[in-house]
## 1
Amino acid sequence: MKVVLTGANGGVGRIVQQLAPGQSRMELAAYSRQELDILDKQALVDCLLFHRPDYLINAAAFTHVDQAEKTPDAAFLLNAGCLEGMTEACRKAGTTLIHLSTDYVFDGTKRTPYTEDDLPAPVNTYGASKRAGELIILAYPRGIVVRTSWVYSRHSRNFLAAIPGLLRTQSEPLYVDTLQTNSPTYAHDLVNGLFALTQSNVHSGLFHFTNTGGGCTRYAFACRIREMILRNDPKASPAMVLPMCTEVLGGAPRPVYTVMSPEKMARLTGMVIPHWQEGINNII
Ligand SMILES: NC(=O)c1ccc[n+]([C@@H]2O[C@H](COP(=O)([O-])OP(=O)(O)OC[C@H]3O[C@@H](n4cnc5c(N)ncnc54)[C@H](OP(=O)(O)O)[C@@H]3O)[C@@H](O)[C@H]2O)c1
């Protein structure tokens, strides 16, 4: 099976590159932004007609939530506008497109996990641009949208991945947010989920993929990391973790509860999706 990857140097893209060699009969052609700009429609057509892949995994996106408020045109262009060209290129090459989206398409007013049947109502520009992109992909007959949330790995450049290092090096307590409850997702599990879709011969539809366990706050995530550090090394002295309830000043509004249910994906692929606490073992 031939797979092309865009956004290859991003947090998800790097894990796709790392895990693809372990997939039997998968041939991956990975393209960073420098090698393939997804805003360049002709370059997309040329690339896909050259490879004629079974699947294109699009991990390229405008992902800076606060910056999207300041430059909405750029966010909409990358997260939605250019996807018309991408689906057109896929159509010409007979390729199924797997596109990643976000829990931020929801407004966060529910208190039970969001399913694929729940109505999106984004509260910020990033979420609105991602929702606009979803509609373009879902209108393509071979378009798959996989919504995910709080993706982290040992190499991620985000707060979740930074917590173990902060706890080990900081002497003062680490104050961590209790406002938002989301579903942390270990990047390797997400990528295994994307690969499971290709192996299940799925070619269209909307799916949620996160780790299971009903989600948590960043505070609960940090507490669990501290607990695991101490379990692995009872002599360790990680910093205390204390709760903090704050909004990012001047930042984009964020939905407070966006736990998603990955049940549809688990049923379809037969995957046993790990609990969010399991991924933590891989980053401490
Ligand atoms: N990470 C999360 O917590 C999370 C949560 C929910 C949904 N998602 C979704 O998952 C997907 C992947 O996210 P991620 O965490 O891997 O994001 P990321 O680390 O920000 O990576 C995005 C990648 O897109 C590339 N890119 C930007 N503009 C491009 C262009 N014009 N052409 C080609 N590539 C371009 C960037 O290139 P440079 O490296 O050159 O900047 C970067 O490598 C996104 O669709 C995101 O919305 C992520």
## 2
Amino acid sequence: MIYLWIGVLLLLVAGILLLRGGRRQWQEAGLPVGEVVYSDTGQWEKQEQPLISRRYGLVGRPDYLVRVTENGQTVPIPVEVKSRRRPAQPYASHILQLATYCLLVEDVQKVRPPYGLLRYADATLRIPFSDELRGQVLETAQAIRAARGVPDVNRNHQDFPRCRTCGYRRACGPEALGA
Ligand code: SF4
């Protein structure tokens, strides 16, 4: 059930921001574009257990945690791996997912990651975990909770490929495109 909520959270965020659409709106949303960095996958530590924050009502499991030393302190950096090539702009859902992991690391391990890593097939992006992005995670989580009392949530996009590959398609019923 908790995984479902994370999935719903990400889908909702992606839907909201895709509806806004376009580069200008993206910038207005204040989401980072990401800086390309190099990381050695051999040093990455597979994250086997989910991170659970009762304080924020969130749970999630980043693909990896890579420990880096920043100002003499070892900091776990969450890494989310995507099999596709790097898009022109990282998807809002990817950034919010990664930022959620940053918040989970902050709460569970009591050290705030200064950034997270989005690893695409052809590039790895460093996404700063800013106060603004942190706030967006909390706002989105709150919006999800508020929506829990709503009997039906309508689809908010016209993206056929997205529905075709969606893990919630069977539960979505007639809202799923191509159903
Ligand atoms: S099937 Fe389509 S409308 Fe339904 S949750 Fe998935 S992406 Fe959204």
